[in-house]
Amino acid sequence: MNSVEMPLVEAREISIQLQGRQLLENVSLNVRPGEIVTLIGPNGAGKTTLVRIILGLLKADEGEVSLKPGLRIGYMPQQLALSENMPLTVKRFLCLGAVIQDNAFDEIIAELAISQLLQHPMQRLSGGERQRVLLARALMRRPDLLVLDEPVQGVDVTGQAALYALITQIRERFGCGVLMISHDLHLVMATTDQVLCLNQHVCCSGHPESVSQHPAYLELFGSPASSKLAVYTHHHDHTHDIHGDIKPVGEEHSHG
């Protein structure tokens, strides 16, 4: 990544109040091409609010957001509510109202390994399968910036590790920047370039390892020894795919 390259998105001193409550105060961030930036923080910290402002869905009271001219954004929402009474296959969902770039469909289906799901009903997918399909839809426009709101929502821990590894793979394959919301610093440690820890304001920011040791982070989440976000690395002889099935390997992996 070229550190002097123009940011895809730059938010400067964003502040917003809703119904008399301060949701964000003087929050700044930027995401450059090929960079993964992760927002962490407790519930109600303003993470989704900041993303909504960046996407133009909310207007900040103060501050401004600058987007690179012609920027294409792919957005993966935190949740997807589908009626049980509306039959919808994965293929139809992916194409529904989507502007798909040339040759993108087949390439992205192969990259995310979901070809076997195309005729399945969306309502019958597992948590990991659903998140892969949502990620595929976000990629169909060949975005310059991929915005992911809790991309491992509803996925078990082995599936979470597989999804985060896939996000890194996508960044490397397509060269897009990634702005991600996550509660799981222990799982994003190896896949994130920069972390912003939010609690209405930026408590701390930087490389994930330095953030995990910052006093403001430790005050929110506890020490690594006691926190569920503890980071550790071990060696084992297998990994897991998105369904949680074991796949033999001979590599080192980071897990939470």
Mind explaining what this structure looks like?
- The longest helix has 18 residues, at 157-174.
- The chain has helices at 47-54, 90-95, 104-111, 127-139, 157-174, 185-188, 208-212, 215-221; strands spanning 9-18, 21-31, 36-40, 62-67, 73-76, 145-149, 177-181, 194-198, 202-206, 232-235, 238-240, 246-248, 252-255.
- Helix content is 27%, strand content 27%.
- Mean pLDDT is 81; it is low at 225-256.
- The protein has one domain (9-255): P-loop containing nucleotide triphosphate hydrolases (Rossmann fold, 3-Layer(aba) Sandwich), CATH 3.40.50.
- Strand 11 (238-240) and strand 12 (246-248) form a beta hairpin.
- The protein is globular.
- The strands form four sheets. A six-stranded mixed β-sheet has the order 5-6-7-3-8-9, with helices on both faces. It has a three-stranded antiparallel β-sheet with strand order 2-1-4, with helices on one face. A two-stranded antiparallel ribbon has the order 10-13.
- With 256 residues, the chain is α/β, with parallel strands linked by helices.
SSE layout and pairings?
Blueprint: E1 9-18, E2 21-31, E3 36-40, H1 47-54, E4 62-67, E5 73-76, H2 90-95, H3 104-111, H4 127-139, E6 145-149, H5 157-174, E7 177-181, H6 185-188, E8 194-198, E9 202-206, H7 208-212, H8 215-221, E10 232-235, E11 238-240, E12 246-248, E13 252-255
Parallel strand pairs: 3-7, 3-8, 5-6, 6-7
Antiparallel strand pairs: 1-2, 1-4, 8-9, 10-13, 11-12
